Amino acid sequence: MPNQLTLLIDGNNALHRAHWVTKSNGVQLVNSSGVDVSDVFTFLKMVKSTVENFKADYVYIVWDKKLQYGQSNFRDLLSKGEYKANRDKEKNKDVYDNVELIVEFTKLLGVKNMFPGTLEADDVISWLAQHTEGQTVIVSADKDFIQLINPQISYYNPSKKQIINAGNVQSLLGMTPQEFLYYKAIVGEVSDNIEGLEGYGEVKGAKLAKEFVSNKESIEETKRLVVERNLKMVDLSYGIKTHPEEQTIYEEQLSQLQGLKPNFDEFQKKCTEYEFNSILR
Fold first, then answer.
1. Alpha helices of the chain — where are they, by DSSP H?
2. Between 257 and which of 3, 112, 121, 270 could a Cys-Cys bridge form, CB atoms 3.0 to 4.6 Å apart?
3. Are the C-beta atoms of 44 and 91 separated by less than 8 Å?
4. Which pairing describes strands 58-62 and 112-114: parallel, antiparallel, or unpaired?
5. Mind listing the pLDDT tens digit for each residue in 195-211?
6. How far is CA 128 from CA 78, 114, 148, in A?
C-alpha cells in the first residue's frame, strides 16, 4: 500500500533513553506489589506518544538481543575485539532487564518485535527499511540511520523531536546521506570505539566526505585505507552482505509476524496487573 506509514523503532536506544529519563527525574515507579516498573512504563509512554504523533499503520521494535548468542560478527573480527570495548557494561547492565516484559506488552498491541541473528538492531532496521511498503520512519537518537534516508525512508530523532528526510537532509546537515556515511567513517564514533582520521572533526570531516563521494581517487592512500576500513564498520548495508544467512533469519521472523493481531483486552488486563492506568487513557 503506497500510502501506509511504518515506524521502525530502535528498541535498545529507546529503552536506554527511558531508563535514564527515569533516573534523571529521580522518581521511581513502584507498584503495590513492590515491583519497579519505571523503565517499562516510561518506554510504553514514549512508544504510545510516537505512534500517535505519526499516526502509524504498522510498528516494529527492533532489539539488539541476538538469537544466536555468543557468536562473533564482522565488526568484532574487523576491530579485533575492540568494537564497543570502551562501554561501561557495569553501568548499563540493568538497563535492558525489562526487554522481555516490554515485548509482551507491545506484542499485545500488535507491535512486531524483531531480533538479529549475530548482527545488531541497526542491521535489522537497515534491511527492514528496504522491505516495507509506503513510507518508513526510523525512530532513534542514533544518527547512523541518516545514511539510509531516501524518498521513502525518513529518520526521526526523538531526543531532538526532529525529522530528517530526503527533502531537508542537505539543508539541515550540509551533506547528502551518502556523504554523511563517509563523514561517519572519517570522524569515527567514540561510543563504538571506532577511531577516525586524526585531526578531522565536524568541518574538515564534512569537506573530506564530499571529496570521497565526488573524487575518491584524488585522496591520499593512507587516508583512504582508514576511511575504507571504518566504512565497513558504519555502513549499515555491509553486515547483511557479510552475513547473508541473516536475511533468512529476518525473513522467517517477518513471515511469522504477519499474522500478529492486537489483543486489547489482554493488554488492558496486563496494564491493570502492573497498575499502568494512565496508559489506558
1. 11-25, 38-54, 74-78, 89-92, 99-107, 121-129, 169-173, 177-187, 202-215, 221-234, 238-242, 245-257, 264-273
2. 112
3. no
4. parallel
5. 888 888 899 999 999 99
6. 24, 10, 11
Which residues have a Cβ under 8 Å from the Cβ of 194 and sit 6 or more positions away?
A: 79, 83, 188, 230, 233, 234
> What Cα–Cα distance (Å) separates residue 177 from each residue in 34, 62, 127, 252?
47, 22, 16, 30
pLDDT tens digit sequence for 35-48: 889 999 999 999 99
Task: Write down the pLDDT at residue 76.
Answer: 65
Question: What distance separates the 2 farthest-apart alpha carbons in the chain?
Answer: 66
- The helix (run of H) or strand (run of E) holding residue 154 is strand 153-157
Which residue from 11, 40, 37 is spatially nearest to 113, judged by alpha carbons? 11
Question: Which residues, in sequence order, are bridge partners of residue 135?
Answer: 5
* Residue recorded with cell 547473508: 244
Copy the grid coordinates of residue 126: 537497515
What residue type is assigned to position 95 of the chain? V
Kind and range of the H or E run holding 56: none
